[in-house]
Specification:
The chain is α/β, with parallel strands linked by helices and 177 residues long. The protein is built from eight helices and seven strands; from the N terminus they run βαβααβααβαβββαα. The strands form two sheets. Strands 3-2-1-4-5 form a five-stranded parallel beta sheet, with helices on both faces. Helix 5 packs across helix 6 and helix 7 packs antiparallel against helix 8. It starts with a strand and ends in a 6-residue tail after the last helix.
Length: 177
Amino acid sequence: MTAPTCLLIGNFDGVHCGHQALIAQALSVAREEGYTTTVLTFDPHPTHVLAPERAAPLLLTTERKRALLHQYGVDHVVIQPFDIAFSQKSPRAFVQEVITPLNARHIFVGSDFCFGYQRAGTIETLRELGTEFAYVVHAAKLFTLENLPVSSSRVRQALATGDLEQAERLLGRSSAS
């Protein structure tokens, strides 16, 4: 069995300052508990599989995302292949087959996190399953900058309009890095 971990789940496209705040929270708990940190992310991005006509271009390659996550202190990055078959897992199957083998003791997700077939699993579902599978869920509050939510979509919008200064504020780093 792997060591107990603080597991962060999400797409982490851009690894923007909202993601960085969630990572910092997980790192703090991991230090207190003596656990490692693991990010579970997906490739390709689920939208590219489930609704390719709506899929936005990605901000980062998978390898660049992995490098940035490590740069921000994450110990392990698990890239879950995402396809139609995977998308059809129930929330319970997702927890049993994906989360449990990672030995998660604390799970960190964004405020809009959904999982499982047709996004049936909510943060509350994840919490309910946590009582059975022995983990605690930490749902991040919406991270804002200049009173607006920080998101990969806002980073893309800033880049599309040539507002590199805004993109860099949202990313928390130079857009070239």
